[in-house]
Write a structure and sequence with these properties.
Blueprint (H helix, E strand, L loop, with lengths): L2 H16 L3 H17 L1 H17 L4 H7 L3 H16 L7 E8 L2 E9 L2 E5 L4 H13 L3 E5 L5 H17 L7 E4 L2 H8 L7 E4 L3 H9 L13 E5 L5 H13 L8 E7 H16 L4 E4 L1 H4 L5 E2 L13 E7 L2 H11 L4 E5 L3 H10 L4 E4 L18 E3 L7 E3 L5 E8 L19 E2 L7
Parallel strand pairs: 3-4, 3-6, 4-5, 7-8, 7-12, 8-11, 9-10, 9-11, 12-13
Antiparallel strand pairs: 1-2, 1-17, 2-16, 14-15
Length: about 425
């Protein structure tokens, strides 16, 4: 089946899926979780073949780590599905209601976007997360994973499709694309695809944006910062910095730059150096950092680099304002953290950092749809319209204006002696 046919099927399925009830969608999610557990041996075997081939091809260690999909990852995926089931249905919610005139009521009601194309990296668990979020939010989805995860993605897509078929979800709501040619074809289908979500390198995301008329939602880089303020508790700062950098280095919400206020740099840098080097982290520091601890000198390029590895650039800054200036100059608008005991300074930081997620005294690694209670995420957006930060189901719905009348016509509200509008807010849901 070619790309046009897949997209046409998805668009037809999306119309019916948009009207599916909550119980129907939750039943399908339950069936998918059961099927993942039942087929776990087959899934793990497929992933082992992907891992073996990728190791022979010398795939980078961070990418290999993301590629692995073992029993623990399957259990985590099933846990995510159960969490998603418990989350209220985002479709059909009344966002606002207004009486325009007696018997003429206007409702703003949430509805699915339609057909979403998602191009993602080597993490097979992303396929489960994305497809389940699209299902719960009533969207059809066309998925393209990395070549390195081809066999794992194929079996996961088959399991999810078969399980959702058994649960009565419209056929064609999910399709897996496997070639670069498919992606090129996908980008030209602006009459059938409503949204593209790319997950990958900056160059890749820019390529997608430059080669399609379809709206694109996503982020290019994850250049995240931790700023240790002069009022920071040192022990807390060490814990947050180490977790932000080391808890999982190959993800977009891992810290890539540490900023340290000059007033505490002399005492804090040796402590954090010991903690980071114990985890195998290579430090690249500014001139003032190199003057305090023994480390490699950072280049201008380091401040704008997403390492996705055990490397961290460190800069000593003169002030809170200087830290914010650095973040806004070099950051990617993803996630940035301040560690401080001064609430006012923390609030000032959050008011002035131009990022999707700004955190106060906690790890950058909390920037995640599952941890936010969104039921995992389809991606993280640094856009400033529609959805920003971790994009869960609320980012996969839009809204419809629904006007309920009783023979009302505009002619009655124009000309001589026109009727007047009331425009009175009402507190009631759209009648279903």
């Amino acid at each position: 089946m070619d790309m046009q046919q897949l997209a046409r099927r998805a668009k037809a399925a999306a119309i019916h899926l948009a009207a599916a009830g909550t119980d129907e969608k939750n039943l399908a999610l339950e069936e998918i979780a059961r099927s993942l557990e039942a087929r776990s041996a087959d899934i793990i075997a497929a992933n082992a073949r992907d891992m073996e081939r990728s190791e022979k091809e010398r795939l980078a260690p961070p990418m290999l780590k993301r590629l692995r999909f073992d029993e623990a990852k399957i259990a985590e995926a099933c846990q995510g599905l159960q969490s998603l089931i418990r989350i209220p249905d985002p479709v059909g919610r009344t966002l606002s209601a207004m009486e325009l005139d007696q018997g003429l009521e206007l409702y703003k009601v949430s509805c699915p976007i339609g057909v979403i194309g998602v191009i993602f990296e080597s993490r097979p668990d992303a396929l489960v997360q994305i497809s389940s979020l699209c299902l719960k939010s009533g969207n059809a989805v066309l998925l393209k994973g990395g070549r390195e995860a081809a066999e794992t993605n194929r079996i996961l897509a088959d399991v999810i499709t078969e399980a959702s078929d058994r649960a009565g979800i419209p056929k064609g709501w999910l399709a897996l694309l496997e070639t670069r040619e498919d992606v090129a074809d996908l980008l030209g289908l602006d009459a059938m695809i409503d949204l593209i979500v790319p997950r990958g390198s900056n160059a890749f995301v820019q390529h997608i944006m430059n080669n399609t008329n379809i709206p694109v939602l996503g982020h290019a880089d994850g250049i995240c910062h931790v700023f240790v303020d002069r009022h920071a508790d040192p022990d807390m700062a060490v814990r947050i910095t180490v977790d932000s950098k080391c808890q999982y280095v190959a993800v977009c919400n891992a810290a890539e730059t540490l900023l340290v206020h000059q007033d505490i740099a002399g005492t804090f840098l040796p402590i954090i150096q010991q903690a980071l080097e114990a985890k195998g982290v290579e430090i690249r520091g500014c001139e003032r950092t190199v003057g305090i601890i023994d480390c490699q000198t950072a280049t201008e390029e380091d401040w704008a680099t997403e390492y996705l590895d055990l490397k961290l650039s460190v800069r000593v800054v003169d002030s809170l304002e200087a830290a914010v200036d650095h973040i806004n100059a070099y950051g990617s608008g993803h996630t940035d953290v301040i560690v401080t005991a001064d609430t006012k300074r923390g609030s000032w930081f959050m008011d002035h950092v131009d990022s999707a997620d700004v955190f106060f005294n906690c790890s950058s690694r909390f920037s995640d749809g599952f941890r936010f209670g969104l039921g995992a995420e389809v991606g993280i957006s640094t856009n400033k319209i529609h959805a920003r930060g971790p994009v869960g189901m609320e980012g996969l719905v839009i809204y419809q204006w629904r006007l309920m009348g009783n023979g009302h016509v505009v002619a009655d509200y124009s000309g001589q002696a026109p009727r007047s509008f009331i425009h009175r807010k009402i507190e009631k849901p759209f009648p279903s």
